[in-house]
Amino acid sequence: MLLNCYQQELIEAGCDEAGRGCLAGPVFAAAVILPPDFVAGELNDSKQLNHQQRNKLRLIIEKEALAWAVAEVDHIEIDQINILNASFLAMHRALDKLNIKPQYLSIDGNRFKKYKDVPHACIVKGDGKYLNIAAASILAKTHRDEFMERISAEYPHYQWKQNKGYPTIAHRTAALEHGLSPYHRKTFNISAPQLKLFSEIEG
């Protein structure tokens, strides 16, 4: 069972990102402050849930959270500052948008760039341990999926509606055949040497 938050003394925001390992599109991040009595039975790391469960939980989180915000860093900025810094920046932007100032931050993962003067804890696999991080995981994932589905209509051959920009075989193959779209991250390796191997395994 997930705990509500990392500590109980200060107003805490949970933070997580989505899209860090993608070949195209922005990285999204969310920050969420939950009420102490928040309950949502299915809430867990967004990767453990299906599309319908995530969208259902998103509505509950956005309705019942004391404060929540979602922000993004686009592919151009990712290429300029690298994906790790872009992930931190997206979290900072989400925190900037909260209408309640957090006094403590719980961050999914093992690294973070300090946000103003707010103390924080980095928690490996935190989205499977704390509800506020899991909630941030859901919001970041669903908002990013929505964005990728929208731009998929512009470039259907990359199949972003299905793969959301992640490096699937179909996505890599389309990028090699059609070239890169304006949404692709130019510093990411599309033609990885594993592509042929993966194709043979899947075939």
Automatic annotation (TrEMBL):
Entry EC no(s): 3.1.26.4
Gene Ontology CC, one term: cytoplasm
Cofactor note: Manganese or magnesium. Binds 1 divalent metal ion per monomer in the absence of substrate. May bind a second metal ion after substrate binding.
Boundaries of every RNase H type-2 domain copy: 10-200
Known catalytic reactions: Endonucleolytic cleavage to 5'-phosphomonoester
InterPro entries: RNase_HII, RNase_HII/HIII, RNase_HII/HIII_dom, RNaseH-like_sf, RNaseH_sf
Alphabetically ordered keywords of this record: Cytoplasm, Endonuclease, Hydrolase, Manganese, Metal-binding, Nuclease
Record-stated family: Belongs to the RNase HII family.
Protein name: Ribonuclease HII
Species the sequence originates in: Pedobacter hiemivivus
